[in-house]
Specification:
CATH class of the largest domain: Alpha Beta
Strand content: 15-25%
CATH superfamily of the largest domain: Bira Bifunctional Protein, Domain 2
Structural class: alpha+beta
Bound molecules: phenylalanine
Helix content: 25-40%
Radius of gyration: 39 Å
Distance between the termini: 42 Å
Number of domains: 3
Number of strands: 18
Oligomer: single chain
């Protein structure tokens, strides 16, 4: 008892005054509390067994806006009928419509029902009544008036005749049915006993104000106790898309680690996307089925001739790099072709062509495109996270350490580096992460140290650590998704359920 709050006490009192059994509405009226407040109080009162709740589902009929209008001015057919009676029982449709003051849209409806109710007939442009005196209200009209007068009517209480009228009025969209749950409270034995013992109602304060504190009034008032463990209502405020949040997180981590962001256009020449990275011109990744080539314009401009020549020679015979090259005749036409960049490494190498002095730590988080069949694990347009470190004495160990730090900041723990191959790095590796839910190793990114064949034409004299990998993979692990398409499907339910803080 001592634990009951003011509204609960008020509810109990009102219920008692109403004879121990009453609906929520009646209690609200009696106690002066809002309906929602009585509902809330009722929850506690019933869990603590002061009251019992009897729920009853009822179907309630009420008028639609149109129904309200007709209830006041009469059904359109009734209005047309009156106009025709005044015109002597027969008139041009147009004239009758005019006299009845009906909106143009309602005339066909009025005519239709006039015929259906057998009050009149239409011959050509003429409308003739079949009755000489005004017929009495039909059951549809009676029901319309009844609901209008009462506000709402319980469907279960209607008799057979009104039931048919109801069907007709619903078809005409003049009446709407709503399911209502009505709740009736009843005092339990515990409730009765508590009231017999008697209790006081002390107003409670729900909000502690500065005034209460300054004047020390807080000592005298009764503050409402809140159950901070009770579940609150779910709210779905606007928020950044989960993928966007992960992009932001990736940026933040790079910035925390002292990197600077670089960005470039999504349309690049094959030169930057492939050639500058020592990918031979017949490399399978360059094929149409892997790469999107632009149809219009087809080609772009190549950089300075000196750089282009160096790249060309390196491809053909290794140039000054000590490599034998790929041993084919390099085509500048092929290098000019425009592509949607297939990796952000295109931006990395372009940046290196103009920034040669160490130390360099740059990154990008950006869109890339591959001509892939869209499946649960592949999409044609996605994001890559990419970074490079250039310094006088950096090694593969530094690269592994940097990556480990980066992914650990993302919350990934079990990371390993497995050997692999890229045309532009040596040694090359891939960072793998163990997915505890899927119980398997997943590739996170490719990595390695740029080959002399890549560095020499750019004029870079220091080791370059580079890595790049898919962002969506990371997002899938973070968000526990098994279908990559979810990230782009705008599934509202999923977007709402995904918490803002992972
Ligand atoms: N560009 C490679 C990819 O798209 C990743 C990579 C970047 C590998 C840099 C090595 C060095 O998969």
């Amino acid at each position: 008892m001592a634990s009951l709050r003011t509204n609960e006490r008020k509810t109990l009192m009102a219920l008692h005054e109403l004879g121990g059994k009453a609906t929520i509405e009646k209690i609200a009226e009696k106690s002066g509390l809002a309906h929602a407040a009585v509902m809330r109080a009722t929850l506690t009162l019933s869990t603590e067994n002061y009251v019992k709740i009897h729920e009853q589902k009822r179907n309630i009929a009420k008028l639609s806006r149109e129904g309200e209008n007709y209830a006041e001015s009469g059904l359109p057919e009734r209005r047309l009928l009156r106009a025709l009676l005044n015109l002597g029982g027969e008139a041009d449709v147009e004239e009758a419509a005019h006299r009845s003051n009906l909106d143009a849209g309602l005339v066909p409806i009025a005519l239709g029902w006039l015929k259906k109710k057998n009050w009149g007939s239409i011959q050509g442009q003429r409308c003739c009544l079949k009755v000489n005196v005004e017929p009495q209200s039909g059951s549809d009209e009676k029901l319309l008036t009844l609901i209008h007068e009462k506000g709402v009517v319980a469907v279960e209480q209607l008799d057979q005749q009104f039931n048919e009228a109801l069907t007709s009025l619903r078809k005409r969209k003049l009446v709407e049915i709503e399911e209502k749950v009505s709740r009736e409270l009843e005092l339990t034995e515990k409730g009765w006993k508590t009231i017999k013992k008697g209790f006081k109602i002390v107003e409670e304060i729900t909000q502690l104000t500065p005034e209460l504190i300054i004047t020390k009034q807080w000592k005298n008032v009764k503050l409402t106790k809140f159950d901070v463990t009770a579940p609150g209502p779910a709210v779905y405020p606007g928020k950044a898309h989960p993928l966007q949040q992960i992009i932001r997180r990736a940026r933040e981590i790079f910035l925390e680690m002292g990197f600077t962001e670089i960005r470039g256009p999504v349309v690049e020449t094959a030169f930057w996307n492939f050639d500058a990275l020592f990918q031979p011109q017949d490399h399978p990744a360059r094929e149409m089925m892997d790469t999107f080539y632009l149809a219009n314009p087809k080609t772009g401009r190549l950089p300075k001739e000196k750089l282009v020549n160096a790249v060309a020679k390196t491809h053909e015979n290794g140039w000054v790099t000590g490599s034998k090259g790929w041993g084919y005749s390099w085509s500048s036409e092929e290098a000019k072709r425009l592509v949607l960049r297939t990796h952000t490494t295109a931006e990395t190498i372009k940046y290196l062509a103009t920034h040669k002095k160490p130390p360099i730590k740059v990154f990008s988080v950006d869109r890339v495109y591959r001509n892939e069949q869209v499946t649960y694990k592949n999409i044609a347009e996605f994001h890559q996270i990419e970074g490079i470190v250039v310094d006088r004495k950096v090694t593969l160990r530094d690269l592994m350490g940097t990556l480990k730090t980066f992914y650990t900041k993302f919350g990934l723990e079990k990371i390993e580096f497995w050997p692999c191959y890229f045309p532009y790095t040596e040694p090359s590796a891939q960072a793998m992460v163990y997915h505890p839910k899927l119980k398997r190793w997943m590739e996170l990114c490719g990595m390695g140290m740029f080959r002399p064949e890549v560095l020499a034409p750019m004029g870079i004299k220091y080791p370059v650590l580079a890595w790049g990998g898919g962002l969506e993979r990371l997002a899938m692990i973070e968000l526990g998704l098994d279908d990559i398409r979810m990230l782009y499907g705008n599934n509202l339910g999923w977007l709402r359920r995904t918490p803002l803080c992972q």
